[in-house]
Amino acid sequence: MGYPDDQLARDEVVKLHTHPHWKEGVGPVLWFVVFLAIGAIAVTYTAKLDWDGKIWLILAEVVLTLILLIWLSVIPWIRWRSTHYVITDQRVMWREGLVTRESRHIPLARVNTVSYTQNVWERIFGFGDMNIDSASDEGEINLIDVPSVDKTKALLYQLAEDDRSRRASQGDGS
């Protein structure tokens, strides 16, 4: 899924578009399987009861299962899928949210420092947290669980250097 073209400037090219590391999606999937199985087992056993009010108990079990599925599985999955980390040839963008959207953009010309942290597990699975400091009033962007964080940092530095060179050559030719 590409980044929406209407969010890009004229001639802006997306160099990297990713979401937080896939490990963020593992928990919601596991919760989905666990609560679906527990709900199915509970309804199956309740249906075997010889009791007049069992339909209300089954309804309560179904409602509780749906609430838990939505709360612990569907909402986190949507939150993960709606978080975008985008690097173009002109800027760095972070956007999250489906209903209520939050977004931050830093032009490459304003990128001062890029750093990242990884613990042992993050190094094994190939992700980390990235901090991008800028020379603007907005300060910094903290990207959480960036896949291939070391390659992303190298790409960002290369694009920032290319942007500086392009701006310098445009300044000389004017």
Give the key terms:
174 residues; YdbS-like_PH; 7 strands; 4-stranded antiparallel beta sheet; 4 helices; PH-domain like; transmembrane; 3-stranded antiparallel beta sheet; membrane; 2 domains; elongated; alpha+beta; transmembrane helix
Short overview:
The chain has helices spanning 23-47, 54-81, 120-125, 149-173, and strands at residues 14-18, 84-88, 91-96, 102-107, 111-117, 127-134, 140-147.
Describe the structure.
The protein folds into two domains: 25-79; 84-168, Pleckstrin-homology domain (PH domain)/Phosphotyrosine-binding domain (PTB) (PH-domain like, Roll), CATH 2.30.29.30. Helices cover 48% and strands 26% of the residues. The chain contains four helices and seven strands, in the order βααββββαββα. A hairpin with a 2-residue loop joins β2 and β3 (91-96). α1 (23-47) packs antiparallel against α2. The mean pLDDT is 87.
Poorly predicted sequence stretches spanning 5 or more consecutive residues: none
Order of helices and strands: EHHEEEEHEEH
How many strands, which pairing sense, and closed or not: the largest β-sheet? Answer: 4 strands, antiparallel
* Count of individual helical segments: 4
Give the strand order, joined by hyphens, for the main sheet.
1-2-3-4
CATH homologous superfamily of the largest domain?
Pleckstrin-homology domain (PH domain)/Phosphotyrosine-binding domain (PTB)
- Class per helix and strand makeup: alpha+beta
Q: How many strands in all? A: 7
Helical proportion, percent range = 40-55%
Label the CATH architecture of the largest domain: Roll
Q: What top-tier CATH class of the largest domain fits best?
A: Mainly Beta
Shape: elongated
CATH fold description of the largest domain: PH-domain like
Nearest-integer average pLDDT: 87
Our estimate of the beta-strand percent is 25-35%
